[in-house]
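Lab notebook, bench 4. Still working through the backlog of constructs that have no structural model yet. Next entry is a single chain of 409 residues. Request: give me the structure tokens for it.
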Amino acid sequence: MRAGPAQVRAALAEAYRGEWGVVFGTIVRMTGDWELAEDCAQEAFARALPAWEQEGVPRRPGAWLVTAARHRALDVLRRRATERGKLSEVAAHEAVREPRPPGDERLRLVFTCCHPALPLESRVALTLRAVSGLTTREIARAFLVGEDTVSQRILRAKRKIAAAGIPYRVPPPGARAERLDGVLAVIYLVFTEGYAPSDGSTVRDNLAEEAVRLARLVAAEAPDEPETRGLLALLLLQHSRRAARLDADGGPVTLESQDRTRWDRTLIAEGVALGREAVAADGPYALQAAIAAQHALAPVAAATDWAAIVALYDRLLALRANPVVALNRAVALGMRDGPQAQLNAVDALGSPKALAGNHAVPAVRADALHRLGRTREAAEAYRAAEVIAPNGAIAREYAQRAAEGELVG
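Model written out:
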């Protein structure tokens, strides 16, 4: 049955979001040519619009698109082979006819895009382009860089894959866990750039949502790996608070001051369930998800189980001795044992390189001093945080707290 133009466009948009990676990955597997794969995938989607308007939306849009892209790829290969007089090459490509499960195709594509031989910035750009189907312009806008920069990153990644002979495959069992860490790190980086941009700009929900989608994809394709569920749980729980994290002026709202009725309970329920499944494996993402779940399940800030959170941070630090985790633990410790414990824990961190220039260090110290009644010292610490705040909204918040302390002191 024919569908109206609006229905066809909606079906095509849905197929693009869900099937781009499968179409692209199928042609990469078939030809090993990433440029050709992109051209063929784009042409398949372009052909779909008039064809579906004329013939109706196919029962399996993804299969239709893969077939269209394959036919286009074979046409190109035949032309190239004819020019070189090597028709046997086409026969070899045509032999790759057996359909593969879509999940296999996506997982193979994710692992290849996140290969450790590629620079991290190229892994991120190539993953968003090849797996998610984001345009160069969308990626550039998301990371606040020029389109030329993104194009170059993707181009260099494709050339590196070809030159280094990086295989298009899921790593063998012995290397899979290690490589999966790199895949999850890329997804978490994408989420962090949307949730708390490193350049201090305002949050970018579309980028965070894309990271959640990628995490869902990897969790679905690698269900036996607990950390895939741990990462998805963590992202869902953090993303559930997005509507309450900023005030009307774009300033940050502390967790204890957020309007919890604005938290997304559907995402929280899913994140908590996934986190409970994964936390037994004691992975870093699952433990962070368990911490986020403690906050999410507290009906009011005062009901937060800080003892449980400190215990989870201790498990996390035992896995990875990370100064950022230690700083977060200092805050939890302060909520459990009082501000002096928080101050002692912050001062005990010293000056690790990983925290150099991090505004949270003087801010956490200022909070402890303020709660100890040492208002003048707290104001000085807030001023120190203001100087290195990542954006204007956060700087104004610190300046206001410093001014309040200066008035009292």
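Notes after review: The first helix runs from residue 5 to 31. The chain has a mean pLDDT of 87. Flag for follow-up if needed.
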